[in-house]
Design brief:
heterodimer, A: mainly alpha, MetI-like fold, 2 domains, B: mainly alpha, two-stranded antiparallel ribbon, 2 strands, globular
Chain lengths: 304, 324
């Protein structure tokens, strides 16, 4: 990305195009002031954006009476909340359920979407464009329309109450990722694959041995996006999960909000701590794949 | 392999003469078979999890169905009921008000921040990370944060306002302030939008600004005459995506105001359409009515999106008549 280079280019270009004989040496200086002002503004907003995390983290180490004191550093520092959450809720189980759902959802959707994207990008067959238009059109369909019948399908299969409805649909690819991956496949040099075919490589081995490894950056973006989507989802766990032991972490957190929040017990320190626990895996995920997340989103935007 | 296959550009969409129409070679047939196998996961998924649900949902919308007893046909009753249902009206108003406040606010704030980011030169990466990070927060946790930070008595927001002698409202309980609170909270997660805008801003050719400066254009003029038209495709994309999202928003408001623990105060002000639909389907088991509600949601999303596409023709500038 040209993220860091663009402003330098700006300086050079300005120097070149506006050679005003009066004050060329002051040009860089003025830019610096502008940059300082921008930094000041950005620092202020950074505090606004990061403060809620700090607040939440700090509150999770405060005893019950001090959760709302809005102090940055806890007056009384305690780990009790983490112990309490662990004792009050089957957090270990929720974590495990979330990990299983998230991994299965991400892996299946990545493989299936890559296959479909490959089918749509490498091959030409009659009706391809119409089918692909149909695939794009499904992205416009609000989830609410299919929500009830989809529930009835899983009910008929006896899967309501299990975690399977939370990921199994990902076996059948997702239009958004197909679109994303297809863009990537289309950018690959076709000759390489044709050459391999001449050498007798089969359809599957061209896809699996050649296209997939070449497409790794886009596959990682897909994995990361779906990791996030599956981990943070609340609606499907609300619809499909009944028994506390099958809950995912966000679904469990919602129960804790109901139980310890306005439901009556007013133990906000439990909720705060559970929120931290729900959020931290996503923060870690972001720092593992920061570049992919940001490039992935920038690409999505420019392809729109 | 036929030469037609090698010559044609991969992303071909135009109506080129169909040279492959002659008689398909074994190679072509094998290709088609392989292609269909590759896309078969999506075809199966489309038939089972999209097409059938769409048809069945349309059917259910004309029935009463509680999952236990078989659906009974009731004609247009569900749709008639929707017209008279005060809660539908309320939910629609809440959803529109929220969308009308949150989408413009998101676009303006993220464009401003992206512009600042572009000026920041070397430190762009650091600030971009800081702005994006909240987007990683699970929406449930955002709902929790809303309750805590916007708490009327002890919340951080009101304490901050207090510094300036402002007596902050009861964001989470006063019906007039619930939606503004939700809107402000939604501004916390504009990280993706900022990144899209920043990428668009960085693609605006510097020469345009340079020649405008030579002509003596003010920064304000440069923004409106160069920046906005040049990034208008990104603005359009962001508006469409955020509008569709806002119209269906559910989790933050549901976490904060609904569920088992909501009995202590009125939550009418936070009743979004998606929440009402969810309640009808899975709390009251009114599957028929919920299906009818879903179809209204579909119509609304389609109409709003179509209006935006129509409106965009005047405002969106595509360089060279094509997007890249």
């Amino acid at each position: 990305m040209s993220a860091t280079r663009a402003p330098e280019a700006e300086t050079i270009a300005q120097g070149a195009v506006v050679p005003g004989p009066s004050k060329p040496p002051r040009q860089p200086h003025r830019i610096t002031v502008k940059m300082l002002l921008a930094w000041a503004g950005l620092v202020a907003f950074t505090i606004v954006f990061i403060y809620p995390f700090v607040w939440l983290l700090s509150a999770s180490f405060k005893p019950r009476g001090e959760v709302f004191d809005n102090k940055l550093i806890p007056q009384t520092f305690t780990f009790d909340n983490y112990v309490d959450v662990w004792n009050e809720a089957p957090l270990g189980l929720w974590m495990m359920n979330s990990v299983i759902v998230t991994v299965l959802a991400a892996v299946t959707v990545t493989i299936s979407s890559a296959m479909v994207a490959w089918g749509f990008s490498y091959y030409r067959f009659r009706g391809r464009n119409a089918l692909f238009a149909l695939l794009l059109a499904t992205m416009m369909l609000p989830g609410a329309v299919t929500m009830v019948p989809t529930y009835l399908i899983w009910d008929a299969l006896g899967q309501v109450g299990t975690i399977n409805p939370l990921w199994a649909q990902n076996l059948f690819a997702s239009a958004f990722y197909v679109f994303l991956l297809r863009q990537f496949f289309l950018g690959l040099p076709r000759d390489v694959f044709e050459a391999a075919r001449v050498d007798g490589a089969g359809h599957w081995s061209i896809f699996w041995r050649m296209a997939v490894p070449l497409c790794r950056p886009a596959l990682i973006v897909t994995l990361l996006f779906e990791f996030q989507a599956a981990w943070t989802d609340l609606m499907r766990p609300l619809i499909y999960l009944r028994d506390q032991d099958t809950f995912t972490v966000p679904r469990g957190l919602k129960t804790l909000v109901d139980q310890f929040g306005f439901g009556g017990e007013w133990h906000w320190e439990i909720i705060v701590t559970a929120s931290v626990i729900t959020t931290i895996p996503m923060i870690i995920l972001f720092f593992l794949g920061q570049r992919q997340f940001i490039d992935g989103i920038a690409t999505t935007g420019s392809k729109g | 392999m036929s030469s037609a296959q090698l010559d044609a550009p991969v992303a071909e969409t135009s109506r080129s003469p169909r040279r492959g129409r002659r008689r398909s070679s074994p190679q072509q047939r094998s290709d088609t078979r392989a292609a269909l196998l590759f896309i078969s996961p999506w075809i199966i998924g489309f038939l089972v999890f999209t097409l059938w649900p769409v048809i069945y949902s349309a059917y259910l919308s004309f029935t009463d169905y509680d999952v236990i007893n078989p659906p009974t046909y009731v004609g247009l009753d569900n749709y008639r009921e929707m017209l008279e249902d005060d809660k539908v009206r309320l939910a629609l108003r809440n959803t529109f008000v929220f969308t009308l406040m949150s989408v413009p606010a998101k676009v303006i704030v993220s464009l401003a921040l992206a512009t600042l980011l572009k000026q920041a030169a070397r430190a762009t990466g650091f600030f971009r990370t800081a702005f994006f990070l909240p987007k990683m927060t699970p929406p449930v946790a955002i709902g929790v944060l809303l309750l805590l930070l916007f708490n009327g008595q002890q919340g951080l927001i009101n304490e901050f306002l207090g510094i300036f002698g402002i007596n902050g409202p009861a964001w989470t309980t006063d019906p007039n302030w619930v939606k503004p609170g939700l809107v402000l909270m939604s501004l916390w997660t504009i990280g993706a939008t900022i990144i899209i805008f920043l990428a668009a801003l960085q693609n605006v050719p510097q020469e345009l600004y340079d020649s405008a400066m030579v002509d003596g254009a003010s920064p304000w003029q440069r923004f409106w005459r160069i920046t906005v038209p040049m990034i208008s495709p990104a603005i359009f994309f962001v508006v469409i995506i955020n509008t569709i999202d806002s119209l269906q928003s559910f989790t933050e408001a549901y976490t904060a105001f609904f569920g088992a623990g909501n009995s202590t105060y009125s939550n009418d002000a936070a009743l979004f359409y998606a929440i009402y639909l969810f309640q009808q389907a899975f709390e009251f088991l009114q599957m028929g009515y919920a299906s009818a509600l879903a179809w209204l949601m579909f119509v609304i999303v389609m109409v709003v999106t179509a209006l935006q596409f129509w409106g965009s023709k005047k405002f969106v500038y595509y360089e060279g008549g094509d997007n890249t």
